[in-house]
Amino acid sequence: MKLKRRFWLFATIIFISLCGFLNSEQVNAKAYTSKQLRTYTKKTMRKYHLRGTIEIVQNGHRQQVSEGYGYYKRRIGNGSKKLVYPVGSLQKSITAAIITQLIYKNKFSQNTKISRWYPLLKHSSKITVGQLMTHTSGINVSGTESNHGITFSENGAIKWTIAKADFNASSHRNRFNYNNANYVLLAGIIRKVTGKSYAANVRSRIIKPLHLHQTYIYDEIPRSKTDAISYLYRHGKNYQSAVYANKHVVSQLPGAGDLFSTPADYEKIQQGLCNGKILTAKQFNYLSHLKSKVNTYSGGFYLKKGGTLKLAYGNFGDTHFVNWMQLTTDNQNGIVMFLNQPNGSKNHIKSIGYSILSKIKAGTFIKR
């Protein structure tokens, strides 16, 4: 009898100790301070040979962590105020936000057929604005991020996209098919409805109200700043295979890839999508729940985990740039990652980002 009591007493002590250990681990997972987060992020970037800048948001507190050079030859460090990075596909939520502003001004609706502006475009009488915003239009244009040796004007890029869409137009509407052409055509709608360039709309509707100082359409980057160069880690060395965002490619992507910014500015834009400076919370909900969506993508990002997270991943054709955003929809926690030297596959990069996210707030984020 005494042996049994001793056994259960011993077992109870072990159980309590184990629970205490697990609880301690859980507490530690949730309790990374800003300094600990910074240290962990730095070590993680160095370990995996990542170079770039990450904006970390934890319970509304924001800090920037940078590693390595954004322009190795000139020794300009990532995080420098001289540097801006191609936003790539993360620009699409900005274009969609401007479209949403126009919808709320009763200029048109998400159900308006795009034949109003593109009467000569094949199938345009059957395609809606909302379908462009959710990549369910059936339009597929190849080579949108390939170098065609032409520096396009905004209007020229839109006309090029229409011509290619005419040639490659598909009838597979209502199916998700991610393609830059959808957002170039949205940029064209913004031009036609407002009577101003897409670039002018970005300045007046995004940059000015948010007081952004490191966000520019590509051909408006001032001489005091420079765009970052992308690299690869190869043969045990950083900063190999240098490639910049080619102006020919950038110029053919108005609304879908011609914006340059920083993670800090981009995170401010995400705040602006629901704090009333760009959109209200109601308008953000409209943007993220368009009727034409067939998966979790709506208006430039994926809404995940019951609508509590917004995610977007982007790269830039023929370069090594990688951008990834995962934020809570209230913008209180998450990361905006702009890398000019990635290392590994898309899922590997996301896994590294997730390791940082898990230290921000345990149980909140997803791996991809």
TrEMBL record:
UniProt KW Signal keyword: yes
Secreted among keywords: no
Gene3D superfamilies (alphabetical): DD-peptidase/beta-lactamase superfamily (3.40.710.10)
Residues spanning the signal sequence: 1-29
Key words of the record: Signal
Pfam families hit by this protein: Beta-lactamase
Annotated ranges, domain Beta-lactamase-related: 38-346
UniProt protein name: Beta-lactamase
